[in-house]
Amino acid sequence: MTQILLETDALTVRFGGHVAVDAVTCKFPAGELTAIVGPNGAGKTTYFNLISGQIAASAGTVTLKGQDITRLGVAERCRRGLGRAFQLTNLFPNLSVLENLRLVIQARKHQGFGLFTMADSHTELTAEASGILERVRLDTQKDQLVSELSHGDQRKLEVAMLIGLDPLVYMFDEPTAGMSVDEAPVILDLIAEIKADTSRTVLLVEHKLDVIRTLADRIIVLHNGALAADGPPAEVMASAVVQEAYMGKELDHV
Ligand SMILES: Nc1ncnc2c1ncn2[C@@H]1O[C@H](COP(=O)(O)OP(=O)(O)OP(=O)(O)O)[C@@H](O)[C@H]1O
């Protein structure tokens, strides 16, 4: 039986009188990529924020590998395997690309800087970080300061950091937004590689139809904060209700 890695049960958040996420119950099994779609303001980012712990739920639960994590903070959720793509604000702007990545790998491995182990572990960490940078095609920028990276390269580094963290649940929020057409395929190929790992699950907030078609095993649709549809891409896309009410204008232009 496929293991459920992440689950939200009646997950809800209210901002004053506004219900931004409305009793969303959803299970995310290992080996699946779920695209989360819906019109602007539907609650996609807020749902992500509730899962990653950036905001606290008003009601309902978030369960990771069978454990209730609803009351845990961002760092503890991350330590337990919940990985949300890093934003530039989570990085150290005055450290290099390689140094940033090495820090996240080190944090995952819980390695300290013991005097005698430092040299060895440093070499290992550098090798692992360099390998990831090659995969995201950032190896030639490894010594560049994060603050000096182009937008496209920053986005690649965000994905590299997530791979370095190696979480059970990968969460991507429009990972190719603002990237050039030449750069985006590198990121999409990497997400395809990640989803091929059947012990992981991937959540992807995405507006671009072609990206959804290429990557998604399943689509969930949020509308006014509530779960409006959940199923295989072809089924959800074909649904007249979804096309008209939730996807029409929003996704057509892509
Ligand atoms: N901190 C907040 N305080 C008050 N209202 C909020 C807050 N965060 C989000 N909202 C509201 O909750 C609703 C859902 O917003 P959210 O950003 O999650 O939508 P979205 O589906 O991610 O939209 P988009 O596709 O435009 O990014 C919106 O009406 C938004 O204005």
UniProtKB/TrEMBL annotation:
SMART domains to which the protein is assigned, alphabetical: AAA
Choose one Gene Ontology CC annotation of this protein and give it: plasma membrane
Q: Which molecular-function annotations from GO does this UniProt entry contain?
A: ATP binding; ATP hydrolysis activity
Q: Which Pfam families match?
A: ABC_tran, BCA_ABC_TP_C
The record's keywords, sorted A to Z, are:
ATP-binding, Nucleotide-binding, Transport
Q: Which residues form a coiled coil?
A: none
Q: Which PROSITE patterns match?
A: ABC_TRANSPORTER_1 (PS00211), ABC_TRANSPORTER_2 (PS50893)
Q: Which residues form the ABC transporter domain?
A: 6-249
Asked if the record carries the keyword Lipid biosynthesis, the reply is no
User: What protein does this entry describe?
Assistant: Arginine transport ATP-binding protein ArtM
